[in-house]
Amino acid sequence: MIGILPHIGVVAGVVLTLLAVIFMLQQRRTPQSAVAWLLFFVALPYLAIPVFVALGIRKRGRGFPPVAFSRDGAASDAASGPAATFAALGVPPAEGGHRIEILEDGQEAYARMMALIEGAREEIDAAFYLVADDAVGRAFVEALTGRAREGVRVRLLIDRLGGWRHPRRALAAFREAGGELRWFSPLVAMPLRGHLNLRNHRKLVVADGLRAFAGGMNVGGEYMGPDDAPRWSDLAYLVEGPATAVHHDLFESDWAGRAPGLPQGRDPDPTGGEAVAQLVPSGPDMRGDALHDGIVQAIHTARRRVWIATPYFLPTEYQAQALATAALRGIDVLILVPRISNHRIADFARGAYLRDLGSAGARVLLYEDGMLHAKAGLVDDAAWLGSANFDVRSMLLNFEMALFLYDGQSVGRLETWFAGQERRSSTAPVTAGPGRRIVEGVFRLGAPVL
């Protein structure tokens, strides 16, 4: 009896490994990700299987049903570029009639966000990856607490992993005042549910379902605050108009953890605005990978320029090939990243990608004035900004969103922003020593798994 136990263990290990491999191959993932997981399964199967269950599953149908969008507007004739591609991939169409304010400064963004909270009449819905345990995070929670005491319904959703260091006392007072607090994917449930690697990276505040603040900024002193202290370079926006309903739909889906039963979106008040916008979500709650696929298609069809700003540049192979091909055919390809980010592993893993693009003719710039945390892009006459980094995690794993803009004024504003960042940047080197290339290769190999 004792002798048969090792045999049973071996057979069980082989069966579980085969099942894991079959399941992994059925999911869409980059070629390097598939190879990395296969090597992991072969080398350390008893470790690889539980790690895959916790970290490797991209889409969980029962855990994250697709978002149900409450609004089905008519596409704007002024929309161009990737708008039709996104609509074909299941994203609500681009519409006109928006008033949009792009916020380039953390002090201004903080003031606009707090004013939005103060001006809400009936409901405030907020979701963030991170609410820091600092003066800014506490002031934000206290503002929500004050509105809850005044009878406004206030809901706050924080990602459990990103928000592990949070203002505990302020949040306790928030709940005592009637505020509703939920944690996205509590970590204690992760190993069994397989959600540990699927984080909610969206950042938004919706007031009365009619106005929204969103973008790349979390709530913390590095991102925003009431004074002009030095901060990371980042972007946020305020939007009124049809796309606000899509912001609200995303919050409702994230809050409930399910798609059915969403309330009908409110018809937006006429704004008198002329901006043309389209909110593009991505993540396990979308049937496909619309954000990733739409950007790849836009790069392939670009005629003049492809400009990308991101703190972490770890593209999928499809994105890397599209960018290199665009540069080789004479398109102005610009990649803007911080010289040193807050994640050194990402800095090492990006090196080979950046040098390959530089060799293909792309302009690769290193932001020198501190940390660049903005996530933005321009492809010809379309622009975007939002929460999604230009990396595998944002494009294929996390819950993200990006606001695409198609009107000349909005695109021009982001074009001006890029020009300002370029003046604070230097050209990245096109060579690296053998030691650095080896280190970069190791981190690049692990990037698809991590």
Automatic annotation (TrEMBL):
It comes from Palleronia aestuarii. Could be a virulence factor. InterPro entries: PLD-like_dom (IPR025202), PLipase_D/transphosphatidylase (IPR001736). It is found in: Secreted. GO terms for molecular function: phosphatidyltransferase activity. GO terms for biological process: cardiolipin biosynthetic process. This is Phospholipase D. Keywords: Membrane, Secreted, Transmembrane, Transmembrane helix. The keyword Lipid biosynthesis does not apply.
